[in-house]
Amino acid sequence: ETKRRRKDEKRLRKEEKRQRREERHRRKLERRESKQKAKPVDTVTPPSDLDEDQDAAHELSDARETESEQKKLEFELRARALESLRAKKATNR
């Protein structure tokens, strides 16, 4: 009875290990595919100068937006950290 139970437990551990391995593999593939989609394809015809100027303007405005968003997030994070620190000091008193 105990021998059979140990055997079943071993089989279950192996199955769980296999499932975790497959899950890691699947996530890795998804990450790789998303990175491939993000990269520009070399087979596309090069854009004209006008398109390049428009793209550069778009990228500049996008960079400004992400920069302001980043600053906003950093400010929010600092505020939360200060609030947390104050709460911690209040509980220690």
UniProtKB/TrEMBL annotation:
Q: Where is this region: Disordered?
A: 1-72
List, alphabetically, the InterPro entries matched: Ser/Arg_repetitive_matrix (IPR052225)
Q: Which GO terms describe its cellular component?
A: spliceosomal complex
**What ranges does the record list as Basic and acidic residues composition bias?**
9-22, 30-40, 55-72
GO MF term (any one): RNA binding
Q: Tell me, which GO biological process terms does this entry list?
A: regulation of mRNA splicing, via spliceosome
Q: What is this protein called?
A: Uncharacterized protein
Q: Where is the signal peptide?
A: none
